[in-house]
Specification:
Helices cover about 45% and strands about 20% of the residues. It is built from five helices and five strands. It has a five-stranded antiparallel sheet with strand order 1-2-3-5-4, with helices on both faces. Helix 2 packs across helix 5. The mean pLDDT is about 90.
Length: about 160
């Protein structure tokens, strides 16, 4: 899709994006606007443009869970988090803002992390009101968090010969 932000990233428009992992079917990147107290929030995005998860073909669904497991295990090792929240939204009424299927993988260690995971719109609104101008995370911090994940993903893949 021409105006889809995720399609642009998939096609190579990756300025300021931290790609954690990529294969022929998916791309995983950090959320450059939010993080939790413990680490980076990741977005697991199918390369095939679909509006939401309900449109995901079985072939992609079967590949998504192992990818989700890989990223989640890497988060535990990279950040030492105690929990992970996995969520998606289907349609505007449920809070979907980018109409390209994606899952949010959120490392959690605290009540604040759960609030960020459960109510990202409220968290974003607070952030927009209190901080004017550029609301992106510090690029260096985002890189460091992404690098921890990339390193753990490589280790896990090597250990399991994936």
């Amino acid at each position: 899709m021409e105006n889809c932000r995720f399609c642009k990233i998939i096609k190579g428009d990756r300025l300021d994006e931290e790609i954690v992992y990529e294969d022929e079917s998916f791309i995983v990147l950090t959320d450059k606007f939010r993080k939790t107290s413990i680490g980076a929030i990741c977005l697991l995005i199918p390369k095939l443009h679909l509006d939401n998860i309900l449109e995901l073909p079985n072939e992609h669904s079967q590949k998504m869970v192992p990818m989700l497991n890989l990223v989640s295990k890497a988060m535990y090792k990279a950040f030492g988090n105690k929990g992970i929240r996995i969520w998606t939204a289907v349609n505007k009424e449920a809070g979907q803002s980018i109409f390209h299927c994606h899952l949010h993988i959120v490392p959690c260690n605290s009540l604040k992390d759960r609030i960020i995971a459960n109510f990202p719109g409220i968290y974003d609104l607070k952030r927009r009101i209190l901080k004017f101008g550029n609301n992106k995370l510090n690029q260096n911090l985002n890189f460091k968090l992404a690098e921890k994940l990339r390193n753990q993903i490589k280790l896990i893949k090597n250990e399991h010969q994936i």
